[in-house]
Amino acid sequence: MSEAVTFIHLTDLHVGNPAVPDDHLFSDTTTTLSRILAEVKTLVPQPKFIVASGDLTNRGDEGSYENLKSLIAASGLEMPVLFALGNHDRRDGFYPAMLGRTDNVDAPYDHAQVIDGIHVIVLDSSVPSKIGGSFEPGQLEWLKTELEAHADLPKLLVMHHAPALDANPDMEWESLSIADTEALRQAVEGKNVIGILSGHIHFDRVSNWFGIPVVVGIGQHAATDVTWLHEGLRMLSGASYAIGTVRPSGLSITFAPQPAERRELTSFTWVGMAEMLKKYEDGNAVAAE
Fold first, then answer.
1. Which CATH architecture is the domain 5-288 placed in?
2. What distance in Å separates the CA atoms of residue 165 and residue 48, rounded to the nearest whole number?
3. What angle is formed at CA 213 by the lines to CA 86 and CA 161, rounded to 5 degrees?
4. How confident is the model at residue 280 (pLDDT cuts 50, 70, 90)?
5. Domains in the chain: boundaries
6. What does the pLDDT read at residue 129?
7. Which residues make Cβ contacts (< 8 Å) with residue 145, sequence separation at least 6?
8. pLDDT digits 0-9 by tens, 234-271
9. What residues are paired with 16 via a beta bridge?
10. Order of all β-strands in the sheet with 223-224
11. Of 67, 48, 46, 45, which Cα lies nearest the Cα of 56?
């Protein structure tokens, strides 16, 4: 590629349904997203596309996706928006509301698009009733086929759960599973993957994963207090998005934090976190039956 291409990375939008009270929605995500989209509209040059790497809504119901769709339409932005699904999303809510699709609504939402010379590949790492990420049968085969396409173009991978940085099974709740991380590493080895864009952990982090930049964003719901991670998870008010630029030299990322007083919204010790995870997964399992 001969010219720089700019894009926007959103994540963890956690948009709610205005008609349904939600005790687990800790901030006004509708207002936050509207403000960010308005800010994006002022950028010069205008980004060529937007990627939203999962947890698009907080509950996964159709009404929340309808709210998300209306917020994007109201923004007046004209560039493509590519969505990944996260653990708060529900495919049976996403497909009808966002795509008008009513068949095969349990299938992973994997898709790809070439935009201004960038091959954007979006993978669904969400697993029903689980907080951590994984791939279902056939997804990695699809990815390998997609990676062979447009071999001359730089490739951006988008998925909610970043690859695991360490082989620690106790931390699989925050990432792609260790087994699928290794399978992903083998799939992308030697391919022109210039970056992986993810979310889920609610803090800005850039890692070098076997030579590939992995960019994680705070998102638009709440910010993890990284100074408290030795105790557990403490969520503060705060939001951010990222402006990405693909140059002939590679990928660069600029974070655009939003003003926040960083007040505490909720917190869990690691013991409490384990109990919460079990309730979350048990509750979702019951709801899916």
1. 4-Layer Sandwich (3.60)
2. 30
3. 15
4. low
5. 5-288
6. 83
7. none
8. 999 999 999 999 999 999 999 999 999 999 999 999 88
9. none
10. 223-224, 232-236, 264-269
11. 67
